[in-house]
Amino acid sequence: MGRTRHDRFDCSPGCAVEATLSLIDGKWKGVVLYHLMSGTLRFNEIRRKLPNVTQRMLTNQLRELEADGLITRTVFAQVPPRVDYDLSERGRTLEPVILALKVWGDANMPATENAAA
Amino acid sequence: MGRTRHDRFDCSPGCAVEATLSLIDGKWKGVVLYHLMSGTLRFNEIRRKLPNVTQRMLTNQLRELEADGLITRTVFAQVPPRVDYDLSERGRTLEPVILALKVWGDANMPATENAAA
DNA sequence: CAGCATCCCATTAGATACTG
DNA sequence: CAGTATCTAATGGGATGCTG
């Protein structure tokens, strides 16, 4: 499966911006990373936090995040199966970035949440 | 034209993350914003900085950024035409976010740029 | 529970040609 | 110079059904 979008980094110094974006775009990666910042989550726990994601998409996004080394996937040989997802070390270094995105969104998105009262 | 991706914000608090991402993803928006942080640019100046973008895509991305209130578009009634693009005030508030993306990319993307020496 | 496989539609993005 | 228009290829993403 392709690296979502942003495949070609043919921009001069702004390159790094797109390079980072390429890891966290993809419709659900950002939120997944955000939720994992709070700790380990199992597949269906993540799913429950993202009401409109399909298993297929979630699986894809998780696999890509894993392939990019941002999360770890731990499979327990049990029945029923259990799979834990965590931020990897590399993923943890992204925390400031994710937070920056969240802070800005909270502060500057009028539609996201009524900041009234 | 559709809001690139990330249309449905149906995640609990992580919403804001996706909301912000929705404004800066779109394959070129991040870099465009980044380059505009250095000052006013005309259409072809931006194009030159993004060797692989097509006019169509660039126009789209610029229009979306404008619609989202992140950049301003100033048309000069001249022949030949001249159009200036600048970050808007709202766009300027995104600077820390864009910088966070760039800083992380520079530091953590092995392929992006050899950080040697 | 945590997936994988398949089918199919919608959107994105590239190429190319034309215009005020 | 700074676009617009059209046509098409590629990808993304939803729905559904099956499995260890």
Write up what this structure looks like:
Two copies of one chain form a homodimer. Chain A has 117 residues and is mainly α. Chain A is globular and about 50 Å long. A three-stranded antiparallel beta sheet of chain A has the order 1-3-2. Chain A has a domain at 29-106: Orthogonal Bundle (Arc Repressor Mutant, subunit A), CATH 1.10.10. In chain A, strand 2 (71-76) and strand 3 form a beta hairpin. The first copy, chain A, is built from six helices and three strands, in the order ααβααββαα. The first copy, chain A, starts with 14 loop residues before the first helix and ends in a 9-residue tail after the last helix. Chains A and B meet through helix 1, helix 2 and helix 6 of A and helix 1, helix 2 and helix 6 of B. Chain A binds a DNA duplex (20 and 20 nucleotides) through residues 1-2, 4-5, 26-27, 42-44, 47, 54-57, 59-60, 75, 78-83. Chains A, B: It comes from Ensifer adhaerens. Chains A, B: Keywords: DNA-binding. Chains A, B: This is DNA-binding HxlR family transcriptional regulator.
